[in-house]
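To whoever is on call:

I kicked off a structure prediction for a single chain this morning and the downstream step that reads the tokens threw a length-mismatch warning. I double-checked the sequence; it's 233 residues and nothing unusual in it as far as I can see. Pasting both halves so you can look.
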Amino acid sequence: MAWNGVPIMSRWLMADRIQRRADALSKELIVAAAIEILDAGGERALTFRALAARLATGSGAIYWHVADKNDLLAAATDEVIGRVMAGAISGAEPREAIRAIALGVFDAIDAHPWVGAQLHREPWRSAMLQICESIGGRLQALGVPERGLFDAASALVNYILGVASQNAANARLVPLETDRSDFLATVAARWAQLDPAEYPFVRQVAAQLREHDDREQFLAGIDLIMAGIATLR
């Protein structure tokens, strides 16, 4: 027997093959492949055609597990941030835990710049909620009063994501083979030659620009914010 020109048995076998392929694929494999594509080429490189080629499957099997590209980006971001949260030391003192979480997010966005963009684009998704809950819970443990809790958590989260995203973007504005020390030395030298009447502060900190460590400076900012939050208590 045939249906629309295709033997019924053949159609049944085709349907069974698609079903088995979708089952074997798994969302975890899809997300892992998506992260590899995003890291290599950014969001523009992530298409279902490219993903299907990497996974040696059809687009239909992928759609079995994710609805669309936005759903896939959210799942990839959840995976990256989930690793950061899993690595947080549960028994650490709240202040140190906040520093560890902040640095973990900073490093994650440095390694996966697209994560920062996704967190800003859809802040209601699970990844952002995990960050907010982790930071806010530690602030509660520190005794920050309810009236200042939301503002304190917002200040920290916005600083973490803003600085981390900007740092990741800056790192990719220069060629990959650029030596960081040489680059900063060149910029610092330009700053030092600026008009002292117009740029007295920039000239003064030029040497610090040349010698600074991005991660240490990032944590210094966290400490400054935490010092301000301490006054709420």
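Update from on-call: the warning came from a stale cache, not from the record. Cleared it. Sanity check on the structure: Confidence is low (pLDDT under 50) at residues 8-23.
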